[in-house]
Each structure stands twice: as structure tokens, then as C-alpha cells.
Amino acid sequence: MVYGKHSLGLGLGGAFFSTVLLACGDDGSSATDASTSTVTMTTAPSSSSTDPSTDPGTSTGNSPTTGGNSNSDGSSSTGTSAGTTQVEDSTAADTTQGNIGTSTGTTGTTSEDDTGIKFDVMPETSSSTGEPPPPMKGSCRLSEIYGAAGGFPKFTDPNYASFLEKKIAIVTTNQQEPPNNHVVHIVRIDGAPPPPALNYAAPKYRHPSWVQQNLGKVFGLTLDSAGNIYVAATTVYGGNPWPNKIRKIDGVTGAISDFATLPNNGPAFGNLNYDCISESIYVSNHEDGRIYQLDMMGQTISTYRHSDKTITNGPANDPGEPNGAFTPLGDTRVWAVQSHAGRLYYSIWREDTGRQNAVGSNEIWSVAYADEGGVPDPATAKKEFDAPNNQNSSFSNPVSDLSFAATGWMLISQRTMLGDAQSTAHQSYTYEYQFNVNNQTWEPKGMTYVVGELAGSAAGGVDHDFEPDGYVWMTGDALDFYTPQVVYGLQGTPHGGGTFQISTIIDMDDELTDQDKTEQGDVELPIPGDADPVPPPQ
User: Fold this and answer.
1) DSSP per position, 338-363
2) Taking the CA atoms of the chain, what radius of gyration do you get in angstroms?
3) Could you tell me if 403 and 336 are in contact, meaning their C-beta atoms sit under 8 angstroms apart?
């Protein structure tokens, strides 16, 4: 069963939302309000050198509020530091305190868990010679055996010490106000939830080199099993001077390097995802419409083009490419990519707010791999479902990220687009799907996770805690919209679903007076080594 072009009957929050788009201006002062500062745990040097040995990162936010107990990394937390409190209308505090997340258990990591037990995937064959069969492709931790991967970074920067062995989220943004104008951020999300619906000044780590002049404009991100971070060039925030770059952040030193240079003269990329079984990274190219499979040296193994279901071994050689133009909307435009249980799931960008399609919807597809080498087999491509239309509307916005949660359900998040390289806001949502084993289809469960105080505020990133009752983490606009704060960034909602009113909300640039509309990007959570692997559809 494939769901056609229609609006879902929404679950939680269905009656809560209307299609009225509340005003959310784009201008305003970019200066940081000193009265809303957070505690600085370390002081950043002014230099933005990429040499981590001489240029340590910074970590800001509230210290853990666990009294004098020791953290799992051996450090002591006194609980005496707090953010500056500012009261508006004598009702609400400007900054809340405390650690966030869900109950402890499989979501934490230890040094052993973080490294994980690596194994080579072996063929299930017997040998008459008594010799073991040769190892096949793959090097996964036990929590990653179905392909979903992402180890914890282990930065040696002393300012990162309090983040080691803690639950974290890695978030991309556009460049925002100094001093927190980085484009990659690491956020601590461990511990007991703080008061909901108020900005939580979560501890954040930002290396001084992780800024736009070094990384470019980035949206999509992924991690390999060793905790290295990869980010893809994007144009969702506007034109990008380096549209052809995939960059790597070393999981130990924090140093930036060029991982891959792909054929692209302007449109940049959609998203990317690491698969530990094939030991390769998949990235969607908005210029030629291909999904590139890269080895861990950044070289092209294969490309897959959805529009004609063809494969190239090695780089593509399309006539006239790269030509600096976006591939047309529709079958040639892929955005989200996610490897799971022997298949590559991906989204098709067919319409958006600025270019609504009366007959075609945004879609989710998947294609199986030919073998453990991870090359897609075009003969196995199938449409999973159409993305639902906005409530009381006849269109939707493209799915820019998808994720598979601890119990196997699928999460998709949309990003509101006016054009190829122009984002807007408040017309995108996050949806949950569960697999029906009887008819072998993904079935919608509605808008279980409602992002933001203003309707439709999903910014296009989604991931989850790797435990059955964990939080779902989403990027969004207007998470708190002048009631009394202005919070744009990361929202964590309990597994059962809900709105911002029961969620943890975190402003990404720690400035609570200006709107950061369209500036939020993607989010990924590393997978603990002792977590149960995300199961295949069953």
C-alpha cells in the first residue's frame, strides 16, 4: 500500500495546529545581549587556527547539577555554576538549569563501549578445506550490525573532557552571532530533563576552527564508527563558495580536512550517511541527481541515479556536468539518505512551498545493496510512501533527513523551501512511521513529535536516543517565540510524543532575543556501543 497525495489525519496535536502562518520576522539586531549570557566553562582564544594543539575549543552552558557526585568520566561536579537569570514580565526565568535526556542505562557510554568491539562481516559459507572464508567488507560495533552507525568523538582537547562518555548531539547551523558563530556544535544532553518549554543552557563544545570560513556552509552530517564527523556543503542558507566539498572533522584532534571533492559547481549536496557494513559514505548531489558512494579515502566507489535507475562503477561521466545548475525537481532530486538493514532509504524532492505540484508528492524510496560492498541494485528500488501533505493543504515540503529509532520505527523531517537555495519556515513537520509486518509497508502514525511553538517549525534534522523510551531530537525554528524567550535550535521530545510544552528546548547560539529563522541545520546522535542495534523492518 502506497499513500497518495493527501493530508494525514494527524495524531497528537492535529487539532492544535492551523494553517495560519504566524509572523516571524527575519531582521533584527545581531548583537548578543549581554544580559542573557551563559556560564563559560572555558575561555576561547580569539584565533580561529585549525591547529587543535595550540587552539583549544570552548565549552559553554550550565554545569551539571548533580551536587558533589562524580561523573562517569571521573570528574567532579559541584553544581554551583548557573546561568544568569533574567526575568521578563516577572513570570519566567531566562535560563533553566540541569542536565537533560532520559534515564540512564544504555544511552551512556564507557571507554570500552565508545571504542566498541569491531568485527569483520564474514560470509556464511563452509569450506571443505577447513580454512576460514576470507573476510568480507565491514567493520561495525555490535550496536551497528544493521548498518546504522556513528561512534562517539574522543577529542583530546581538555575543554572537551566533560563531554567524554556523555550523551551528546551534534548539530549543524548557519553562521550566527559571535562569539558562538560556529557551524558545528556538540551539545551535552545527558541526565534528568530540565524544566520543559524554557531554554536550557546546555553545555556546548565548539572548536574555534569549526566556523564557516573553514568548513563552508554545511547542513548534512554523519559519523563513522570511530567518531569522525563528516559534513556536506549546502545551499539551504544561500550560495556556497565551496559547493563541491565533503569535509571531515577528526574524532580525536578536531582538525578539519577535505574528505572528498565531487562534481558540483554551485547547487552543493543534500545529505550524507555512513554505512559501517560497506565502510562507505552515501551523499546526494543536487547538481547531477546522483547518490555517490564514497570509500573512506573519499574516492567514488559507485553512483546511483534514481531517475533512470542506473549505476556507475566509479565516478559518473555525465555529458555537460557539472554545469552549476540544480537538477530539476522530481525524480532527479534526492535529499535525505540513510542506510538501514541492507537498504539505502532516500527522499525525492518533488515540490516545496514555492513550487507546489498538483499531481506529485515528495516521496520516500529505498534500494537494496547488491552485496556487502554497498553498491545499490537498481532492480530492487521501490517506493515506500508519499510524504503527507501539510494539514489542510495540497502540498508538502521536502524531507531533508530521516532516521530509524531504537525500536525500528522511522522518523522523517521536512525543511521549508521557497526555491532551490532559499529556505523559509513554519510549513514543515516531523512524522513517525511504523512498519506493518502483515502487508510489508510503512504506515504513518501522525505528527507525533510537534516541533516549535509556532506551527510547522521543523528545520529538517531528526535523530533519537538509542533506547526504547528515549527522546527524539529535532532541529527547529521558534521553539519558544517570545513566551518569554526567543529560542531557535534543538528540541528533545519524550518517546511518547508531544509538543514543545513538554520538551527540552536548546537555543544553539545562546542568544535569546533575536530570531534565527532558517539558520538551523541537521542533528545526529552517536550510537552507544552497548545499545541494542536498531532492528530491521519486521
Assistant:
1) EEETTEEEEEE---BTTB--SS---E
2) 22
3) no
Contact between 317 and 303 (Cβ < 8 Å): no
Q: Distance (Å, rounded) from C-alpha 291 to C-alpha 452? A: 32
Residue where the block lists cell 559553554: 60
512, 488 contact by CB (below 8 A):
no
How many CB atoms lie under 10 A from the CB of residue 291? 22
- 410-414/417-419 β-pairing: unpaired
Give SS3 for 269.
strand
Mean pLDDT over 91-110 rounds to 36
Q: How many CB atoms lie within 10 A of CB 237?
A: 21
The Cα 200–Cα 96 span in angstroms is: 5
Give the global pTM: 0.81
How many angstroms separate the CA atoms of 272 and 282, rounded? 5
397: CB partners within 8 A, 6+ apart: 351, 352, 353, 362, 390, 414, 415, 416, 417, 427, 428
- Helix intervals (H) in 143-295: 212-215
Rounded mean pLDDT of the chain?
81
Cell of 57: 575549543
Strand ranges inside 37-102, DSSP E: 58-60, 87-88, 92-93
Asked if pLDDT for residue 16 goes beyond 80, the answer is: no
Residue at grid coordinates 576552527: 209
**Residue holding cell 516545496?**
352
The C-alpha atoms of residue 505 and residue 169 are separated, in whole angstroms, by: 13
pLDDT given at position 74:
32
Nearest to 190 by CA among 328, 326, 95, 71: 71
What is the b/e burial string over 473-511, where b = at least 16 CB atoms within 10 angstroms of the residue's CB?
bbbbbbbbbeebbbbbbbbbbbbebbbbeebbbbbbbbb
Which residues lie below 8 Å from residue 225, measured CB to CB, with a gap of 6+?
116, 118, 139, 140, 141, 144, 149, 150, 151, 274, 276
Cα(464)–Cα(474) distance, rounded to whole angstroms?
A: 8
Residue type, 289: G
Question: CA-to-CA distance for 346 and 332, rounded, in angstroms?
Answer: 12
Average pLDDT over residues 306-315: 97
Q: What is the SS3 assignment for 460? A: strand
